[in-house]
Structure formats: C-alpha cells, structure tokens
Amino acid sequence: MTRLPGWFRQEIPEAEALSWAKILSQTRVRTVCTAARCPNLGYCFKRRKITFMLLGNTCTRNCSFCAVGKGENKSSLNLDLDEPQRIAETTKKLGLSYVVVTSVTRDDLDDGGAAIFARTVELVHGINSTIKIEVLIPDFAGKISSLKILLDAAPDLVAHNLETVRRLCRELRPQADYRLSLDLLKRIKEFRPGLLTKSSLMLGLGETEREVVTAMEDLRESRCDILALGQYLSPSAVHYPVKEFIAAEQFVTYAGIGLALGFKRVLAGPLVRSSYQAEEVFREVVSCTI
Q: Does residue 3 lie within any of the structural domains?
C-alpha cells in the first residue's frame, strides 16, 4: 500500500520554519522532527514547536517502523555531554515556552541516558523556571534507578510510547516489551502521583479495533493520562509496510472510547504524533485540573 489518501497534505515550510532549521544546524542540535521524517515538520516549525532528540542519531534497537539510524556495535555510538547545554541555549535563542525532549534508545549506557535527560531538564529550567518540559523517554531497560534519576529532575510531563498493540509488539519492536512499557508508566505514577503521563499508538499496522481498545484499557490500568493516536506511515520500502489507512471516522470513535475509559485527553487523527500539539494538550489538561 503506497498511495496516500488525499487528506495527507503537508504544509510547505515557510521562511521562519527554514530559519529554524538553519539555527538548529548551526547549534548542532538534533530533532526527532527531521530524524524520524515527521510529516508535521512544516506545521510545527511554523508554530514554534520542536522536539529535541538526545543521545546522538544512532539507536541500539532495531524497530522495523522507525526511520532513525540504527547501530549494532558500540563503535558507531557516541555520547555528547555538551548536548544538554546546546539544547538549553537553543531553547533560549528560539524563545520557547514549552520544550519536548526525546532520544534514541541507548542500551549501551548503564543508565540508558537518564542522566543526560535529567541534565537537559535542569539546564532548561535554569534558563527560565516557567518553561514547561515534556520528556518522551525510552524504557531504560526497566531500570528503576534510571527512572528515578529522570524524575528527580522534575519534568512537567513524562511520555513513553506503547507504539502498538500486544500482538504486534514482538514483530515491530523485537528488543522492547509490551508489559515493560506499561509497567514503566505505572511506576512513574507510583513515584510521582501528580505527574502527567502520556503514551502513543500507531495505527494501520494490521491491528484490530478490539486490540486497540485493549491497549487503551491497559494504558489506563497503568494510570496513563493522555493518549495520542496517529496513522503509521512507512519511512521507506524496507520498513514495515502500511497495512491500512484508518478512516477519519474511526479516529473519532477511538477518541470517544478513550475519553470514556478515563483519559484526560485523547488526540486522534491521521497526522497525530506523540508530541503533536504537545503544549496545547498539556495546558488544556492542567487548566481542567486546577
């Protein structure tokens, strides 16, 4: 399935978006927007939204849906200890009020990169304590010590993506674990009950509606607050293929089911990604709980 529906249209990057790309290049700061070939890059840059990517551009895992580069040996990996400082400086230069930070997965690091995440949060908050910071983290191989390092830095929202339904997890994410991801989200709430959590599912991978609803139920059992549902788009011919384009009406149905299950907010649509409209969703949820 290669032909995209007509409702998949990307905004052409405007001058301001292109200037952002230039600044990011000059500061040597990576974004998942470019690394993962996100279809919303023009839309988000135009609206001064960005998702920084930590820990280099090489992932130690081999997920079949992801466009980020992969490395099977340590010689292809590196650790840039100055990266958090550059992200903080870029945040200030761009005048961001909400920062999203994610990373590749680094199983070669003892803490999975948690200390770099924590340092980034601390430095950004050091620039301006009113800046809100959302972190989209890997599973840290289930290490509670790594999770505590991150949480001690006091991010404003922690996201971890389930990505797909249980049946497809092994095929799409051979080095990940469905239950481990759910347990990670549950642990966050155990350590920080008031901290907002978020997760995301890609649709169109061959899952059934019942499987999607079960995954949503599993996330609520882990006390996940916010859910993002989007259409999977294969980055290339060698990646996992799109099995189905989900109808707009089905996204509406899923959103309704999610809200009925107790999610504080469900963002559902073909172009939705885990950090899509992140600031708007965060502020909406916070305003409703005050």
A: no
Q: What pLDDT sits at residue 66?
A: 79
Report the amino acid identity of residue 23. I
Q: What is the CATH number of the domain that holds 161?
A: 3.20.20.70
Q: Which domain holds residue 277?
A: 15-289
pTM of the entire structure? 0.88
- What is the C-alpha separation between 68 and 155, in angstroms, rounded? 25
CA pair distance 255, 227, nearest whole angstrom = 9
Angle at 289 between CA 287 and CA 290, to 5 degrees: 70
Indicate the burial class of 114 (C-beta count within 10 angstroms; 0-12, 13-18, 19 or more): buried
**Positions of the chain with pLDDT lower than 70, given as ranges:** 1-27, 31-48, 71-76, 290
**How far is residue 122's CA from residue 249's CA, in Å, rounded to a whole number?**
42
For the chain, how many structural domains are there in total? Answer: 1
Residue 140 maps to a domain: yes
Among the listed residues 139, 110, 135, the one whose alpha carbon sits nearest the alpha carbon of residue 53 = 135
Beta strands in the chain (DSSP E): 51-54, 58-59, 69-70, 98-103, 132-136, 157-159, 196-203, 226-231, 265-268
Closest to 134 measured CA to CA, from 20, 49, 255, 27? 49
CA–CA distance from 200 to each of 21, 161, 197, 203, 253 (Å)? 26, 5, 11, 10, 16
112: its two tokens: 């999975």
